[in-house]
Design brief:
The chain has 277 residues and is an alpha+beta fold. The protein has six helices and eleven strands. The strands form two sheets. Strands 3-4-6-5-10-11-9-8-7 form a nine-stranded antiparallel sheet, with helices on both faces. A two-stranded antiparallel sheet has the order 1-2.
Amino acid sequence: MSELRWHPLLEQWVVVTAHRQGRPQMPGDWCPFCALPEKYDVYLYPNDFPAFEGGCDVVLYSPEHTKLPSELPVSQWEKVIDLWARRTAELQADPGVKHVAIFENAGAAVGVTMPHPHGQIYAFPFMPPRIEKELASVGKSDECLYCLIRSKEVENDVRMILKSAYFDAFVPYFARFPYESCIYSRRHAKGLNDLTSEEKADFAGVLSQMRKKYDALFGFPMPLMMILHQNVHFYVEFLPLQRSKTKLKYLAAVESAMGTFLEDVIPEDAAAQLRAV
């Protein structure tokens, strides 16, 4: 159903997904995730409008339609994480899958079409260009670049948001989005399936705290993108689109056409505000 077209100037794939034009757009009187024939706690649901054949899943965080991710208990996040880990292992065992992307789009400003709390998993048949570029940078470093980034943030401390037994959350020095932040594993672990049970439980707690902080920042659910990275050193990115209580961040010509981000919020100020809520 989808078609890959090569962009010769940028040397990257464009995915034509015209069939996705028909997907529901925030229906007000029904929810397909609430109408599933079986009861569930967390649920892996094949996307009805997949971007790639055979590798696009919806992860339902909760059967409760109005429950925000920030309202999920830590025990529920632990179940979501277990599902993420299990599906990651299944997809990575497929030689046709080149990259497993676990992510969540939250909020209408990001383009969410269904309000029920959920995330997604895409099994890419090619390596996304962002990941290719990142791994190329990592390959130029004698030490783990992620470990260096985390250690410098911990040492500097000014952009730290919170610390746990096994994870550090901070606004990176090089943040591109307003109130952007990361959760880095303290230990050099590649992905979810390399974490111990204690680390997974700790991660669930940190993830819960960060989602609560974002929704408390302006007093309403923060429109954001959450992405899990499991390539070399496990970390999570939060990319919000709210630059103030009344203003959104739009990726306009400089960002979209030139590939250069204009950061509206000083990272040190963003970290201080996130620490305070």
